[in-house]
Description:
The structure holds 2 protein chains of 2 kinds. By secondary structure, chain A is an alpha/beta fold. In chain A, 34% of the residues lie in helices and 21% in strands.
Amino acid sequence: MERNKTRADNQPSGSHEDPRLESQPGNRDGQQKPAGAQGQTSGASGAQAQSMEVQGLNCFYGGFKAVTDVDMTIRPNKITALIGPSGCGKSTFLRALNRMHEVTRGGRIEGKVLLDGEDIYAPNVDPVQVRRKIGMVFQKPNPFPTMTIYDNVVAGLKLAGSHKKSELDDIVEDKLRQAALWDEVKDKLSAGGTDLSGGQQQRLCIARTLAVEPEVILLDEPASALDPMSSMKIEDAMQDLKKRYTLIIVTHNMQQASRSSDYTGFFYIEAMGEPGQLWEFGETEQIFSNPERQQTEDYVTGKMG
Amino acid sequence: MASGSLNSNLSGNYRRRKTVDKVMTVIAYLCAAIAIVALTLVIIYVVARGINVWRPAFFTENTALFGDGGGIYNAMYGTAMLVLLSMAIGVPVGIMAGIYLAEFGDNRLGDFIRFVADTMAGIPSIVVGLFVYGALVLIMGWNAFAGACALAILMLPVISRTTEGIVRMVPGELREASLALGLPQWKTMLRIVLPTAAAGIITGVFLSVARAAGETAPLIFTILGSNFFNTNPFEGAMAAVSLYVYQASSSPYEAVQEAAWGAALVLMLFVLVLNFIARAIALRQKV
Ligand SMILES: Nc1ncnc2c1ncn2[C@@H]1O[C@H](COP(=O)(O)OP(=O)(O)OP(=O)(O)O)[C@@H](O)[C@H]1O
Ligand SMILES: [Mg+2]
């Protein structure tokens, strides 16, 4: 594949994105940024970071209440980290934010989750549309094994409708760059998605999520199965991504949370069988240096596992 | 001293286990050898008897159940027709039933369908032939379509249960990845789950088709057998290789009996090729 694209070549592809932005009314009030002003990578990023608001959210598995009464405000273009002991409902909560929780058998919620003021659980809202706006990266890298690297990146676009080949080429490069994977795979885009290392696969999954132009990206322990180097790469990529997206990340890595996030939510479960709750939420700086509650301090200082 | 007693304690068990292990290995090898020898003998015998009959005219003449026996042209055509027709009926229904069972079948209806499929798989093929005779042949007369229906009924449970098993084996993470990309459930099924399961499903289909191509009993009551070249699958008796082997081998004419061996060789090679294709696809599958 010969793909020596220059910045000049990228310009036209930036302008054809504009109609796409136009077709998403209702989400641009106040916060609109000109596409060209979004950092160096390219002007082709149509994503608009959005805020989320969680109000009185309860999550259930059948009769079992896993998460209770969470209120949280998630700010745009920030990284919000969710931490807490195992089993306290971080993944459950995260999956409720893009309606993946209901995919699980018995999964249902009560309460409200607003994406830029609009309740994603309102009766007339299509969960498929919600998931296009709020993407998700899972703990275990899960590229599609039947697809090439290239096809993995554009899977969400290609399978949702037809696209021009040249358009897809641009998207593949752009998203792989954003996921900090381009240099490693640019010469083997037609290799299988599962032929990559675990860390590369995870970045491929991030690129795949970016390609559908979500506004918010949820990451559930994206680096926990990876070595420290790969983990660092993903962390670096996230710093870049928050210029364009709103990021929410579940992590067990305290250093990662304190280093890279802007806000931190600490989930805690008081006793076995009780639902998890959002024990404390605030700016990362404050949660890690001067938390209000004892359990938070114990957890972030490693006195509680 | 302590190490001595430890040694004798442990090695006693270990020696016995090693002996048992050896005996079991030998038994396993023996069983495998018996199976391979039997298969090889069948193949050698059929090849030895059948190859004599093979001459160009054998593949271009129609069958004859008297005199010098003729060829199997019409029978090969009939078998091809039966295989294609039965696949056209059985494969889509079987695959869709399998998908249904895997994706939505964790309920009473699913259990019922599974029960029906397992029961169907156990019905003797001649009974299926009789059923189709009653349901179709009594109304339409002998015809290839009825035979294909009987074969499709035999293929259905195998294909649906294989498909179900393989679709279930597709990791849930792939489904979730697809749903999280904002792809609807049906697209996730069609474009992610099915392609991932495709190699396994195709293997299952080939194996069941190979099975059906060799079936004879259900054809007796449906296509009857014929010495003429019949191209209309919906009307009139038709020949098939398996049926011809059965009918020719009970002929009083020696030449016709010999011709049966030639036809048996054709059938065997056809089934072997199908099996090899199935194996090749199964081996090529990654993950
Ligand atoms: N599919 C499920 N069905 C029933 N209960 C579940 C299911 N998944 C999780 N749970 C329960 O919900 C609670 C919260 O689980 P969750 O996976 O959200 O925890 P977590 O904070 O992500 O833990 P970890 O840090 O180990 O990933 C746990 O008590 C768990 O047993
Ligand atoms: Mg979790």
